[in-house]
Task: structure prediction
Amino acid sequence: MKKIALTLACLGILGGTTGAQADTVVKIAFAGPLTGPIAHIGKDEEYATRLALDDANAKGVTIGGQKIKFELMSEDDQGDPRQATIVAQRLVDAGVKGVVGHVTSGAAIPAAAIYEQGGIPAITPSATSPKLTQQGLKVVYRVIANDFQQGEAMAKYAAEVLKAKTIAIIDDRTAYGQGLGDALADNLKKLGVQVIGREYTTDKAVDFTALLTRIKGKKPDALFYGGMDAQGAPMLKQMKQLGMTAKFLSGDGSCTSEMLKLAAPAMSSDVYCTQAGLPAEKMPGGVEFKKRFKERFKVDVQLYAPYAYDATNALIEAMKLANSTDPAKYLPQLQKVNMKGVTGTVAFDAKGDNRYGGITLNQFKDGKWVVLN
Result:
């Protein structure tokens, strides 16, 4: 019996394929909120990460003389900073070769220290807080523009086009929301626009009546919210219920298709949002990507999926440049990545920010977000 088994093994019949013929499995992780109020944004990016890995596997990638099979390992950080560090340590311990994530700045910033200790490169598709890449860490990269750029764009539009003289600001006290509010306030000051109220809430709140009532009495020309659509939508509804006429401004956390659904009765032409990056229609590969994404996952792109796709491919490109999947060997090559992605050219500066990030301003019209510039 032993002789028969040995003969079958030598012929490659027992167990399917021999070890020499087997692909080398390389685990790439996705980390973001897969449950909770912003799970739709996390799933959006997870799907895109999966699509990028499937595309690479379909084309065939050989690194270090080995045919590579990429596998996705997904972890739910719930958009929570404490859970993010647990997830990050779990991924380091699992031996993943790179991370796409985290989705939110509040999660990405504390997780970054864990990846730095483990030597695992992490590229975020959507964490826009400037603080993320100002920590002096070697492993952290970003493929999208940051909040400084968003704040500047919204402030300029509010002052020069909307002719707003007074603006109230609310943020959710997350690294993302507060950072966006701060960036706007700083730029409004430079333009001579008065911030007549600065209020705070949380990323779990749903009732903003008392807060909005205080702001209503100050009669601002516009109200800016720094946070996600899960709070932005009920806030906008409650503004309308209170009879507030201020224009509603927000960042990319509210610039989603989900916002259109959640706030549908209250959406009007007085609602604006900035978006880090370009709309899909303006991306070199955006239209085709949206089509393929919908065909594969049966849902529309929410927001950052194209950036997650490019973040994944940037990791793979660095591995190719190093001819190694070892994070210690391919990490330095991330500085040399210069590739044409779905979103445009992806190339990183010394801090890890994309040299070619852009900002888009949108307005609600005819049931959808319409690009203004």
About this structure: Residues 1-20 have pLDDT under 50 and may be disordered. The CA atoms of residues 363 and 369 lie 6 Å apart.
